[in-house]
Design brief:
The chain is of the alpha+beta class and about 375 residues long. Helices cover about 20% and strands about 45% of the residues. A hairpin with a 3-residue loop joins strand 8 and strand 9. About 30% of the residues are buried.
Length: about 375
């Protein structure tokens, strides 16, 4: 939201306050904004937001100008100073890659504190195929949970004029997350597994945090509902999977542990090693749980930790898997994900029984014979 003010230079400026509460700024042109909200729990919300204003004057003169503020927030724990230093180094090193094939030149790079937060200021030029050489002046700022980028795009003469400096210097950024009371699973998808062994609540597509709706597959005696959740700051994923199994024989604690080792643990942990299991029971089923370091796959070298939880009774079993970095596996979001599952083997057993309207017919035929 914003309101306009008239300044000493006679220009109209828009005083913009982000509806997320993360930043406020003065801009010479009104912003258009898109914000994605994603809950971590019943109190905290992370955001991914883009506010942009553009002045395209190519119809009258060969000029284009844009003001941009874009930010993402981590779904994991607060960032440390050492982690922020690594992220800033990566940002500076890779910024020109956005303009691959456009003869990008890095004219300035400076690591410094901006508005009290660690950041970097960059200036690059590149060749736009339509209007020739363009320039970008950008600032990247990190708080404890947010990566914010502020940029001005246009010709070289506006990069450091009064209006440009005012746009950059009037930015104020808040640290921390947005607190808003609500139900974490509000807006999530609620799914019953194909065989009826379990139900789960899980996030639907919410880019950039969740790219797609959950994937659901099954065979005659095995089923799977899976989802991948992305941290846009770390670039890491949380891989969440819930498997359902139906067996011909009743399960025991020993057989469950063997199945867990063969079908799950052996995929991530090679060789023989001691694994500690926590075992509990409820009125309706048994629970086996373990957390461990694992061998990370090549495509996700950060995914070096796993949390597995098993529910079983009679011939039925489900396995919840959360795999990612240790920080994300132990995050509030991962804990929330694992809490929204319901094990109901009785529904699966009913699905195996013939419909009631078929039973009398079969009994009648047996009597006739």
């Amino acid at each position: 939201m914003g309101f306009s003010t008239t300044n000493a230079d006679g220009g109209q400026w828009d005083y913009y306050v982000s509806d997320t509460g993360i930043f406020e700024v003065q801009t010479p042109m009104e912003f258009e904004t898109e914000t994605i909200n994603f809950r971590l729990d019943n109190e905290r919300v992370v955001h991914s937001s883009t506010a942009i204003s553009m002045a395209d004057q190519r119809r009258f003169k060969n000029a284009f100008k844009s003001h941009l503020i874009q930010f993402d927030q981590t779904i994991g724990p607060a960032l440390t100073d050492d982690q922020i230093e690594i992220f800033l180094s990566y940002d500076v090193k890779n910024y020109t890659k956005r303009y691959d094939g456009m003869n990008a030149v890095l004219k300035k790079k400076e690591l410094k504190f901006i508005r009290g937060f660690p950041g970097a200021e960059l200036h690059i030029s590149y060749e736009d195929p339509e209007i020739g050489v363009q320039n970008v002046r950008a600032r990247i700022i990190y708080t404890d949970v947010t990566r914010l980028e502020q940029s001005l795009t246009g010709n070289q003469y506006i990069m450091y004029d009064y209006k440009a400096d005012k746009f950059f210097e009037t930015l104020d950024v808040e640290e921390g997350l947005h607190y808003s009371v609500g139900k974490i699973d509000e807006g999530w998808g609620h799914y019953t597994s194909p065989l009826g062994i379990f139900s789960v609540s899980i996030p639907r597509a919410t880019p950039p945090y969740v790219a797609k709706d959950p994937k659901i597959t099954h065979s005659e005696k095995k089923e799977l509902i899976s989802q991948t959740i992305h941290d846009p700051i770390w670039g890491h994923n949380i891989f969440y999977r819930v498997y359902g199994y139906q067996f011909d024989q009743p399960l025991t604690a020993a057989s469950v542990q063997n199945i867990l080792t063969k079908n799950h643990i052996s995929k991530y942990k090679k060789g023989k090693s001691s694994i500690s299991y926590e075992k509990t029971s409820t009125d309706t089923h048994h629970i086996v749980e373990t957390q461990m370091s694992i061998q990370a796959p090549q495509k996700a070298p950060y995914a070096s930790y796993a949390h597995l939880r098993v529910f079983f009774i009679d011939n039925y079993m489900i396995v919840q898997e959360v795999i990612s970095s240790k920080e994300l596996v132990k995050s509030a979001l991962a804990n929330s994900l694992m809490s929204f599952v319901e094990f109901h083997p009785d529904k699966a057993a009913k699905k195996l029984q013939p419909p009631e309207n078929e039973k009398p017919e079969k009994e009648a035929k047996a009597t006739e014979n």
